[in-house]
């Protein structure tokens, strides 16, 4: 969910597009979902359905034929799903996952979805049916499609070299400004090695010059042919896994494998399920979509007001719970609806939702298991702009007890253009070299959290430790990090959670004893490489090199003098490879 401009009239007062005019993404469709009765044991066929239990489904088949509709199993073959269910898949909170074999998507009659919903819900073998509004990563409005340019993957000969933009990526820096990715890169596995992330949305610029290292391509669905969708997906992937080179930007977890999953044509729930099937325990799914919620009767709006996270809909909730039960960490944008997810409007079960549904935004109910991410303000002065106190809730961000963590919701420097235009940081005619300084919304916040989690999983894997489960990931994000701050009219009680702090989280996950010893030799790194790392004083202690970042001139001089004297007595205390104390005795 991208939010480009917060108008003077307050969050959501007008559209978030250029000059507050509002904008839309193309090809977002409603979904008509049917939930079958368990006792009917429906099985989809090439034409119509049958009942494995011998129930009479002639009325259902007649209706489907007359209306030229098809029932498609939402999550795949029913027998295979029931076989998996017999293996007692449970989420890590110990509860069974909803029966995925009961969900179907209706194909055909899209313009009459609401009419068909009520009629289908009354048919034998059907428990209920509901309509899901189209899922989008940003606002609804109107625009002309921009041309599809620069997809060759290679820049024209003689094109200027892209500058190094990493100095503009404050989210990489130490806490509280950033998530301390630069510290993580110095640790074994801390660049996300061995971790795979699948980004679920609409489209990507897969040929971008800064995404060549670890981008695996599209693994589910068909990308939407629209430059606004491509810019959005490209920006998300850049925040997570942009290449670590001397040009452009660097992702938080540049060694993590990233892949793309388009929610077209399967729909959101089926795509979440399919992505989870392609991953192993400890990998990550990112959901970069939201849709209109009940606040305004599910109507699309130019200003995104009332838009909420996908997990509120029963089939998306079931898919997320399935993914989490497999040990896959699911991270989802909380949405740009300026909504309190604690509001009573979310307790009311909509017509068509199954009886078992309970509001997943209420912490008293069974959780989906996903990490829900809100949008926080970057430090004032970032790129010369001020969005309020650092880590305060941005006005468009949804909030509430359900939200687990926050990321940068403004001024996020990354790959891609600015909505349906070339990049505002670097544009031009070649889309593969576009960069933006203004990626925003819960869409920019969510990949910040994903990048931090990927770094942590990489370090755990490298250390031979058990990877975080979905529940453990949520707990770590809630118990560590840089705390949310108050803003005028947006107090910290409007919860969006902490900004991740990788270094603090590692201490929580991998507590290590402090060792000590005498330095045998040293190395003063005056010009670090990669250049985004801080200067280091490296000391060889107890058989390993230990790092002291940003040493003061006095410490440098003292260590130099001690070794120059021929009988150094430099006593070092360390945790892992980090120097935590140093005394120069001679």
UniProtKB/TrEMBL annotation:
SUPFAM superfamilies: Subtilisin-like. Residues 9-20 have a biased composition (Gly residues). Residues 1-25, 141-169, 476-497 are annotated as: Disordered. InterPro entries: Peptidase_S8/S53_dom (IPR000209), Peptidase_S8/S53_dom_sf (IPR036852), Peptidase_S8_Ser-AS (IPR023828), Peptidase_S8_subtilisin-like (IPR050131), Peptidase_S8_subtilisin-rel (IPR015500), Subtilisin_DY-like_dom (IPR034073). Keywords: Hydrolase, Protease, Serine protease. Residues 224-481 form the Peptidase S8/S53 domain. Pfam families: Peptidase_S8. Belongs to the peptidase S8 family. This is S8 family serine peptidase. It comes from Streptomyces durmitorensis.
